[in-house]
Amino acid sequence: MHTLIYGYGNPGRQDDGIGARFIELVEDWIEKENIADLSTDCNYQLNIEDSGVIADFDRVIFVDASVVEDVENYKIEKVEPNNATIEFTMHAVSTSYVVDLCRKIYDKTPEAYVLHVKAYEFDFKEELTPKAEKNLFEAFEFLKDFLVIAK
Questions:
Q1: 19, 25, 80, 92: least CB-packed within 10 angstroms?
Q2: Mean pLDDT of 90-117
Q3: Is it the case that residue 90 has pLDDT exceeding 60?
């Protein structure tokens, strides 16, 4: 199963850089373990053009910093394209919107998940808070097991 790990967020805004840092960990893991069928991408925000990016994959896992209350350290949830909404927030469009566009434009619907990693601070700094960094490493270990299970 060809899988894309797509991290997003702003590394210049402290914990919002979780997505980019996560991709660095995945890329190191891919190189060390010589893992096939696993690709990465990273951007500041999701855009409608990402529907074309994910069309080439069987599965996509979006990774982002989260301030959602029900996320203790990290949480993975399935993305349902029928719940597509445009969100006018820091991120231009939602994950469900990107998957829904992929389905409508390319007639492809990759299995999709979002991995929320708990974040705390969003100051103008290029470093994660210690608690967010701990959550990042826990989420990364979880993902490695999840990918094996989800094959």
A1: 80
A2: 90
A3: no
